[in-house]
Design a protein that fits this description.
The complex is a heterodimer. By secondary structure, chain A is mainly α. Chain A is built from 8 helices and no strands. In chain A, helix 1 (6-46) packs antiparallel against helix 6, helix 2 packs across helix 4 (98-123) and helix 3 packs across helix 4. Chain A starts with 5 loop residues before the first helix and ends with a helix. Chain B is mostly helical. Chain B has 9 helices and no strands. The chains are: A mainly alpha, B mainly alpha. Chains A and B meet through helix 3, helix 4, helix 6 and helix 8 of A and helix 2, helix 3, helix 7, helix 8 and helix 9 of B.
Chain lengths: 229, 251
């Protein structure tokens, strides 16, 4: 361990956290919100009585869950400029930054995983809840929005948050499209100053501290929810 | 705004001169499976040992197991990949470190990738094993003790044979995960399926043909694994138990 250079970490702290970690956290937050919203819609599709809708929802989820995230990141990195060009009617693929591409990728990808969680959550609600909603004269969207989803969401909150910790870790894969997330920033410093051991060890420690603290919080939340019920 | 598909590219020769692009990708699948299978064997062994130890009555062993699980669960896979590839050879004695660094390609990437995936997956296997053991009725353990079996014998003859059959379905999804996760090894230079799809895209500029072909190959691989595992699950299911798994977050 001789010659472990702490100085390189200290010198680059600003870049690592203000540029890198901000990218990571923003991406995680947007993809979490977007993924849960889209995932809930997918779960409602999969549980739909209309067969065509449930088949489409199921096909999307199974497709996303069968391919590696790295491949999905590549797909969207090249696909988003084309779709953008198609929507705006441009003749060539439009320029899309790594951040927007990553936001779309992770929202679309994580939605498949959030969907399975929300589906289990919805299925855990007794059918009588839905019937009483209809008996009160509520329509499908009202029953879902006011009765089923709030309960499903609450029951599944710990699992949704655990999935978000995994999402937080997975965002480091944007390294493959050379984005400057926390890992990407560290990799750039590591290669510039030839300090790979220091930088990657530091990255591992930081990810560990954040993920582990979050998982402890989730555990506490889980206990609290369990007592109330 | 249109994309001109050119599927014939798959039959054209790749610049490395080993054959067609399709052949190039299928060799990539070979490396994906070789990585995943080797790592799976290690992950299963380690995972079963650690998962079992975490349910025993020795407190310090349980704590040690928990520490192992928390460390490797809370560091992203790609960061662990870099640790195995860049950091571990530097921390080992110089002779061993140099020997690792001088391994000819692709072994220089293959060995760290297998180690990384094995340890990463062993944590998840350990969690499944522990959950499987804890799902058994407590009476099973007590009956073992009442029969005069030692703790080791109780595990060997009563608890483990039952829990292995219970945890098979969740282990199926872990096996699919290890296949998918092996794609992260492209970041340390292993040319497995996803890595080769990206290389093909760079050589030929046929972006979507390359990724679409890789996607289809992954889907077919998944299909084969699912069918094989369903068959295995039917064979070993414990009669009288419903089975099924609890909802868990994961990839």
């Amino acid at each position: 361990m001789q010659g472990f250079d702490f100085d390189v970490i200290e010198r680059s702290l600003g870049y690592l956290f203000l540029d890198g970690m901000r990218f990571t956290l923003t991406l995680t937050a947007i993809a979490m919100v977007g993924g849960i919203v889209f995932g809930t819609l997918l779960a409602m599709m999969r549980l739909s009585a209309v067969r065509a809708i449930s088949v489409i929802g199921g096909a999307y989820v199974n497709l996303m869950r069968s391919v590696p995230l790295v491949l999905v990141i590549f797909w969207f990195f090249f696909l988003v400029p084309y779709i953008g060009g198609w929507i705006t009617g441009a003749s060539r693929p439009i320029q899309v930054g790594a951040f927007l591409s990553a936001v779309i990728t992770f929202t679309m990808f994580e939605a498949a995983y959030y969907c399975e969680i929300m589906r289990a959550g919805i299925q855990s609600i007794p059918r009588g809840q839905v019937w009483s909603g209809y008996a009160l004269g509520l329509n499908y969207w009202q029953t879902m929005g006011f009765i089923v989803l709030p309960q499903a969401f609450r029951n599944m909150l710990p699992v949704l948050l655990t999935q978000t910790i995994i999402l937080f870790q997975d965002t480091s894969l944007v390294y493959v499209i050379s984005a400057t997330d926390f890992l990407g920033a560290a990799a750039k410093v590591a290669n510039r100053d030839y300090r790979l051991v220091e930088m990657y060890t530091f990255v591992a420690v930081v990810y560990f501290i954040i993920s582990y603290s979050l998982s402890l919080l989730v555990k506490r939340l889980q206990d609290r929810i369990a007592i109330i019920r | 705004m249109n994309y001109n598909w050119h599927w014939k590219i798959l039959l054209e020769a790749e610049p490395g001169g080993t054959g067609s692009y399709l052949h190039y990708l299928i060799v990539g699948l070979g490396w994906t499976l070789a990585t995943a299978l080797a790592a799976w064997v290690v992950a299963l062994t380690l995972g079963v040992i650690i998962g079992t130890l975490r349910t025993t009555s020795r407190r310090w062993v349980v704590h040690l197991g928990n520490l192992y699980v928390e460390i490797f669960r809370n560091i992203p896979l790609i960061v662990q990949m870099f640790l195995w590839f860049f950091v571990v050879p530097e921390l080992l004695p110089q002779a061993i470190g140099d020997w690792i660094k001088q391994m000819p390609p692709p072994w220089g990437s293959y060995v760290p990738a297998v180690m990384c995936l094995a340890i990463f997956t062993s944590v998840r296997v350990a969690e499944q094993v522990r959950a499987g053991i804890n799902s058994l009725p407590r009476g099973q353990r007590m009956a073992g003790t009442a029969m005069g079996l030692t703790e080791f014998q109780t595990y060997r003859y009563v608890i483990l044979p039952q829990s292995f059959r219970i945890i098979l379905p969740p282990l199926t999804s872990e096996f699919m995960n290890i296949i998918k996760n092996s794609s992260v090894a492209l970041t340390i230079g292993l040319l497995e399926l996803t890595g080769r799809a990206r290389a093909m895209q760079e050589f030929s500029f046929r972006v979507f043909e390359a990724f679409a072909t890789a996607t289809v190959i992954y889907l077919l691989t998944n299909l084969v694994v699912v069918i094989g595992m369903r068959w295995l699950e039917r064979r070993v299911r414990v009669p009288g138990l419903i089975g099924g798994q609890a909802m868990q977050a994961g990839h």
